[in-house]
Amino acid sequence: MTILDQPPATPTAAQSSCGACRDGEAKLFPFSMAFQPIVDIASQTVFAYEALVRGPNQESAFSVLNQVTPENLYAFDQGCRVRAIELAAELGIHRQGALLSVNFKPGAVYSPAACIRRTLRAAAETGFPLDHLIFEITEDERVSDTVHLQQIVTEYQKHGFGLALDDFGAGFSGLNLLSELTVNYVKLDADLIRNLHDRPRAETIVRSAVAMCHEIGAEVIGECIETSEEYEALRNCGVHLMQGYFFAKPQFEALPDITWP
Fold first, then answer.
1. DSSP symbol at 189
2. Are 58 and 252 within 8 A, CB to CB?
């Protein structure tokens, strides 16, 4: 999911007194979630399921995200978290021992401690364990306020959430950001993985990224894997957490069957 990742917008008078939290409960356009597994190929188990936004009738993520504006960004971000947690609890993801991965928008967070309240309430009401939640930091514009982002990460880790840096190696999601943030997982960008088996330099970069991430205590996740050749190349680079159509397509409001290599 793409985000608007400028520094947090200056809150309005209502938002400065947690009006933004009330706005987050405002009525939004309808949407739901599909789930795609992140698998551990070493143990052949599901490590986590990523919640991917869809329209109420299984419309594409693009059709939903096209309705997001700066004015409803906060409410949309809050609504996505709640819907993902509610569905994950219904589907029993945590009872399988799997985690739930939710995309998270730094630009939609005004105050880390205040803006997490609705997430905590949704988890409490559904009985979903906080330590089974991962928030993926997705960004497509340069992060200019790393202090604010680090405050978000610190607050989230207080509650036992895992943090993942998404699309590592693409655009602005790079080494500088990784050096500033303490994250648990690093998701390699799809363009880095595509046809990896035919790109020796890319393989060298992936292998080096795996070693670097292990050195700083982060696990690497390979995403958008579509072929057996990409799977084998990633495995040879030391990646054991993987996600993509090669294993399972996202399934709307359900957990898909997995094809194991």
1. P
2. yes
CA pair distance 110, 56, nearest whole angstrom: 28
Instruction: Please report where in the chains the tokens 């996505």 appear, as a residue.
Output: 80
**pTM, 2 dp:** 0.88
pLDDT at 111: 82
* Per-position b or e across 71-96, b if 16+ CB within 10 A of its CB: ebbbbbbbbbbbbbbbbbbebebbee
Q: For 80-104, what is the mean pLDDT? A: 96
Q: Report the distance separating Cα 96 and Cα 105, nearest Å.
A: 27
User: How many CA atoms, within 13 angstroms, populate the side-chain half-sphere of residue 237?
Assistant: 33
The angle at the Cα of 96, spanning 247 to 235, to the nearest 5 degrees, equals 35
H or E element that contains 54 = strand 45-54
The answer to whether 258 and 46 have CB atoms below 8 angstroms apart is: yes
Distance from C-alpha of 226 to C-alpha of 244, rounded to nearest angstrom: 6
Dihedral angle of Cα 40, 46, 47, 52, to the nearest 10 degrees: 120
Q: CA-based angle 193:197:200, to the nearest 5?
A: 90
CA-to-CA distance for 46 and 44, rounded, in angstroms? 7
pLDDT in tens, 161-217: 999 999 887 665 578 888 888 999 999 999 999 999 999 999 999 999 999 999 999
